[in-house]
Structures are given as C-alpha cells and as structure tokens.
Write a structure and sequence with these properties.
With 206 residues, this protein is mainly alpha-helical. The protein has a domain of 74 residues: Helix Hairpins (Orthogonal Bundle). Helices cover 73% and strands 0% of the residues. The protein is built from seven helices and no strands. The chain is globular. It starts with a helix and ends with a helix.
Length: 206
C-alpha cells in the first residue's frame, strides 16, 4: 500500500472532477445522432464532429489515467478495478458483435418473404469470400499475433522487439484499413440496400 493510501485510510483513488465523462457523453450523442442523419440524407458533418470529439475525449482521458499510474495512484485495488472494467468491456463487445452475427445467420438460414426466400437477396452481388475478405482476415489475425509479440516483449523488458512488434501492428492495421476502404468503395451494394448490406457493413465496419 502506498503512502498516499495510508494517509487516506483506504486504497481507493478519489479522482478529482473531470470534464471527460460529460465530454464523452456529448461526443457519443453527436456521433450517434450524426450517424442517423448521415444514413437518412447523407449529411456527414455532424457525424464527423462527433467522431473527432470522441477521439479527443479518449486521448485526453487515457492521458489522465496514464499520468495517475505514473504518480502511483493505481493501488492493487484500483488495478483490480481497471482489469474488471476491461473484462466487462470485452464482454460487451462480444455481445455487441453477437447481435449482428445473429441477425446475419438468421436472415441467411431462414430467409423471409421480404427477400423472396433467397440469400443473398435479389439484386445483391455478394463479394467472393476467398479474395479481399480472406486477405483482410489474414492481415487481421497477423496483427493480433504481432501485438501479442509486442506485449510479451514489454513484459520481458525487450525494447527492440517491442518497437518492432508495435511498428508491424500499426503497419498491418493501416494496410487493413486501406483494403477495407477499397472493399467498401468497390462493393456493388450500399448500406441501405437491405438486410444483407446492413449486417455486412455493421459487422465489418465495427
């Protein structure tokens, strides 16, 4: 237990007033509201502002968390809470994507009369799974391996391997985004073209 926790009588870090929760809520509201406007009439400015504010909020909030860690405010109790929060975050992400995959498989295995009982729906030209989607999947899996390599290098104090692992991860991430952007640009269907395109863009876009 640190000297700070002894003086307070407990191990919890009492965070001073911060603007980032309020800013994050406003940014998320602007992002979601702007997304609805964009899907309806192609007005992208509000969604772009919300996205930019979200990125800024994440940057400054994480900066404060890192500073608190360097100043020894993260006691074992605080660290355990942060780990538990990460577990909850990952669990929520699993459920988030499970909803989209559920919608996709439900529509593809049991197509309804709204799409003439066929999958893909009439008029939709599906992408070939063994071309760009397969390549991007390999890149995504490889980036997971390189970031794991960087994590182990960090734990072992190997700075050279850490830099190489992070550099490869960032490079693979950039290549992934470029291929994904080209895939979206060359797709023969748009976001509002039915259940197939909606689940495709939501599951792959997030």
């Amino acid at each position: 237990m640190s000297d700070t926790s002894h003086s307070k009588g407990h191990e919890f870090h009492m965070v001073p007033p911060s603007p980032w929760p309020v800013m994050g809520a406003l940014a998320a509201g602007a992002l979601l509201g702007g997304s609805i406007l964009y899907f309806r009439d192609q007005q992208v400015w509000m969604m772009a502002i919300g996205f930019a504010l979200t990125i800024l909020t994440m940057f400054f909030w994480w900066r404060d968390v890192i500073r608190e860690a360097r100043e020894k405010y993260h006691t074992p109790v605080v660290t355990r809470g942060l780990r538990f929060g990460m577990v909850l975050f990952i669990s929520s992400e699993v459920m988030f994507f499970a909803a989209f995959f559920w919608a996709f498989f439900n529509a593809s295995i049991m197509p309804t009369a709204a799409i003439d009982f066929t999958w893909p729906p009439p008029g939709v030209v599906a992408m070939h799974a063994w071309e760009l989607p397969f390549l991007n999947t390999l890149i995504l899996l490889t980036s997971g391996a390189t970031v794991t390599w960087a994590h182990h290098a960090l734990k072992n104090g190997n700075q050279k391997q850490l830099i190489w692992g992070l550099a490869l991860t960032v490079g693979l991430g950039f290549i992934f985004l470029c291929i994904q952007s080209y895939e979206y640009y060359s797709a023969a269907f748009g976001f509002r073209d039915g259940i197939y395109s909606t689940t495709f863009y939501m599951a792959t876009g997030f």
